[in-house]
Design goal:
heterodimer, A: alpha/beta, six-stranded mixed sheet, five-stranded parallel sheet, 52% helix, B: alpha+beta, four-stranded antiparallel sheet, 5 helices, 48% helix, globular, disordered C terminus
Chain lengths: 704, 90
């Protein structure tokens, strides 16, 4: 057993989304799974149904959804024509409750256009309507396009679809302009030229949340006229701004109840963490609760038999261990060890896996110090940032900024309010100064221009706050948008600033959101124990105050937003730069980057521009190689090499909380040793891992 | 205790996780007796208790409304195990 080359089969146990295919033990939570199937069965009969799934953190709520997804997939495989029988939509609620419908819209479209075995769910839906297989649909597309067009017309009439939606569905059905068509369907603001190319009218949307609600309802109606559509909502706790936020649950229940009423063949499955049971029940309206919780299922603690099956399912992944299992069924574990696992409180899969992982490491003599809380969080942040960059941030800036800015403002000690009679998204008071922030992600002049005019009409503001326009770095104005660029200049003359966070900043903010969302939902675990959101917030606060390297881009962004003296942000762009870009006169003007005055160990200034694929690829490649470069290592290590600074900082109390060390323990080189030993361990496991898997692996190693 | 649990179950949707607070409000037992009874029933496999992951973040009064075991784990939800329910129904 003392073979260090054996991979620990109990690591990487966290299921992040329902499209994964983790190892499954069907007898665990079987009753709850049957309830999930019942929901789909009822919806198939034209009666909307719903289920509320309760379970403590780590009980396997998301895992259960993966089982349902695979079950549907299997049914499709068993079908003679490989026809789909249900549209499956997974929505992890890592968003703000103000953007709930927009988030659901993105997730719904993303899953409808997700390709498996060459066909998307929307293509399968069409194939189902035509009573053909997805492969035959492709033949139809080429040989009898008029038949497909006719079917789309029938669909449009039966579901009363507006023209633009029917046109976009046609594009998707014929596999044309898929990227732009999907972006439109997701609610992204598109330039006029793109809209014209798609054959669509101008984007005159004023209320994007309402528009998203209408689109989701239409798509539900469209899908549900053909086959049942099941929405699986996970991590609803992530919607909460703070632990007392009941409004988030209220809005969620209202939205889910509306979905329930949108079409007869809709099923809704909601995962709820047991810890928020009372809060949820108090927060939602009775009428909404009745719609979204027609059925209930509890994920109970595991029985001894289930624990045993769970452990064996993982051990079976290592054939060399199974060869020695003749006399000792759980080799390398003893039966006593496995029997005792059922006494864990709570006895949930995540805790079982964690105990086994630790024991496995011990038996392999691979015991290392547990990383401190801030080492763990810094590494998690970095891994998630890379994942975010790799997944792409197109169309995500609104969600990210809406969620992140209040969190960053709070962590920097600024006062923030969302109500403003002049239409700002936020008024931020920081260092005795006010700024009025507005998110302006309209892609073209026609939609942006009226918004800018409204801002000009309100400039200067009565409270003296300058306007700060936040805008997606991927959006640029066309050459034809002359009037819009003039308006930008006029705004600048009146003191406004345009801030375009870099791609790197957006990815870091996304990572912060993801960390917080997982913490709120009990899905952020360090050594098997849930890390709560207050710990993450405390770490963030300290990191921003001392200028931790992993948060450098966030600090630059914050400085750009609040216009901090002495710190000019790379993200801040003058309207003239936008004008030049529109005229094709080179890249955006960016100011020189000055490091945060209190920032800890120096490293190479980051050179990322809003779209710097080389840097991203470089960073991913660096991460993928076993030999971690100095820069990447530096992104994780400052918190460790700077352990003395932490200990000596004015935030000693937070540090104690975060580090998990008692205040008497003097920080020494052990943290650095832990860091390198973690990467050494990773080096052993490096074979054939993708960059995302590598990033996940790093986080997982640090999770313990 | 079990009677209070079954009554609460009857007043709640089938299969729902029940609130320890609500159950406590229906019980005549004092905190210590109530907690002991619930933990004993859980030990016998007659009920399933659901832990609160961050009970430390709750106010003392809120925490006291939960069930606490000797390890300091706090439980917020309770459900009778299906076998127990069947037994009583029979």
């Amino acid at each position: 057993m003392n073979d260090p080359s054996l991979a620990n089969p109990f690591r990487d146990a966290v299921v992040q989304d329902a499209w994964q295919t983790p190892i499954d033990v069907p007898e665990i939570h079987h009753k709850a799974f049957c309830e999930c199937r019942n929901v789909i069965e009822t919806a198939s009969g034209g009666v909307p149904d719903s289920l509320l799934l309760y379970g403590p953190a780590g009980a396997g709520k998301t895992h259960l959804l993966t089982r349902l997804q695979r079950h549907l997939h299997q049914k499709q495989d068993e079908d003679r024509d490989r026809r789909q029988h249900c549209v499956f939509v997974f929505v992890r609620l890592q968003t703000s409750s103000q953007l709930l419908w927009q988030h659901v819209r993105r997730r719904l479209v993303s899953d409808l256009t997700r390709r498996e075995q060459g066909a998307s769910q929307i293509e399968r839906l069409l194939a189902h309507r035509l009573s053909v297989s997805p492969i035959e649909l492709r033949t139809f597309r080429e040989l009898s396009p008029e038949l497909l067009l006719n079917e789309i017309d029938v669909m449009r009439d039966s579901a009363q679809l507006p023209r633009d939606l029917a046109v976009v569905i046609e594009h998707l059905a014929f596999d044309r302009k898929v990227r732009d068509a999907s972006a439109w369907l997701m609610g992204e603001s598109l330039p006029e030229a793109t809209l014209a190319d798609l054959g669509l009218g101008p984007d005159l949307t004023t209320d994007r949340e309402q528009a998203a609600r209408e689109m989701v309802t239409l798509l539900c109606r469209l899908a549900a006229t053909t086959m049942p559509l099941v929405f699986c909502f996970d991590q609803i706790e992530a919607l909460q701004r703070n632990a007392d936020d009941r409004e988030a649950f209220f809005h969620f229940a209202q939205m889910a109840a509306d979905l329930h009423d949108s079409a007869p063949s809709v099923g809704i499955i909601t995962c709820l963490q047991s810890a928020v049971l009372d809060q949820f029940k108090c927060a939602v309206r009775h009428a909404d609760f009745q719609r979204i919780a027609k059925r209930h299922a509890v994920l109970h603690s595991l029985t001894r038999h289930q624990v045993s099956a769970l452990v064996l399912s993982r051990l079976e992944l290592v054939p060399s261990l199974r060869e020695q299992a003749g006399e000792q069924p759980y080799y390398p574990f003893t039966s006593v060890f496995v029997a005792n696992l059922a006494d864990e409180a709570p006895s949930v899969p995540r805790r079982i896996f964690n105990q086994c992982a630790r024991q496995f490491d011990e038996l392999q003599a691979r015991v290392e110090d547990q990383p401190s809380m801030h080492e763990f969080l810094a590494a998690e942040l970095m891994a998630r940032r890379l994942q975010s960059l790799q997944a792409g941030l197109e169309g995500e800036s609104l969600r990210i900024l809406t969620h992140a800015l209040p969190v960053i403002a709070g962590s920097c000690g600024a006062a923030l309010r969302a109500e403003d009679p002049d239409g700002a998204d936020w008024i931020i008071e920081y260092g005795g100064k006010l700024v009025a922030v507005t998110l302006r992600n309209e892609a073209d002049g026609r939609t942006l221009n009226p918004k800018l005019k409204a801002l000009l009409d309100r400039s200067p503001r009565q409270d003296g706050a300058p306007w700060v326009l936040l805008r997606d770095p991927g959006l640029s104005l066309s050459k034809a948008a002359v009037r819009t660029r003039e308006r930008l200049s006029e705004l600048e003359a009146k003191g406004a600033r345009l801030v375009e966070p870099t791609l790197e900043t957006l990815a870091t903010l996304d990572a912060v959101q993801s960390l917080l969302a997982d913490a709120k939902s009990g899905d952020l675990a360090r050594d098997g124990d849930a890390v709560d959101s207050s710990t993450v917030l405390a770490w963030l606060k300290v990191g921003l105050n001392i200028g931790a390297d992993e948060l450098e881009s966030v600090l630059r962004f914050w400085s750009a937003v609040v216009g901090t003296d002495g710190v000019t942000a790379e993200a801040e762009v003058s309207p003239q730069a936008v004008l030049r870009q529109g005229r094709g006169e080179g890249s955006l003007e960016t100011h020189s980057v000055q490091r945060h005055p209190r920032s800890a160990p120096q490293r190479q200034p980051l050179q990322a521009t809003p779209a710097d694929p080389e840097r991203i690829e470089g960073e991913l490649a660096t991460f993928q190689t076993a030999r971690m470069s100095l820069e990447t290592a530096a992104a994780v290590s400052p918190a460790m090499s700077g352990a003395d600074e932490w200990a000596q900082s004015a935030h000693a109390a937070s540090d104690d909380l975060l580090s998990g060390r008692s205040s008497e323990e003097a920080p020494d080189g052990s943290a650095r040793r832990t860091f390198w030993s973690l990467f050494n361990r990773r080096r052993q496991d490096k074979a054939q891992r993708s960059d995302v898997a590598a990033a996940t692996r790093l986080a997982s190693l640090l999770r313990g | 205790m079990l009677n209070a649990l079954y009554q609460l179950e009857q007043d709640s949707p089938r299969g729902a996780l029940l609130s320890v607070r609500e159950l406590r409000a229906r019980s005549v037992l004092d905190k210590a007796s109530f907690d002991r009874a619930a933990l004993e029933l859980a030990g016998l496999g007659r009920v399933s208790l659901h832990a609160h992951d961050h009970a430390g973040a709750l106010a003392e009064s809120e925490r006291r409304a939960l069930i606490e075991d000797v390890r300091g784990v706090h439980y917020i939800g309770i459900a009778s195990m299906p076998e127990t329910r069947d037994e009583v129904n029979a």
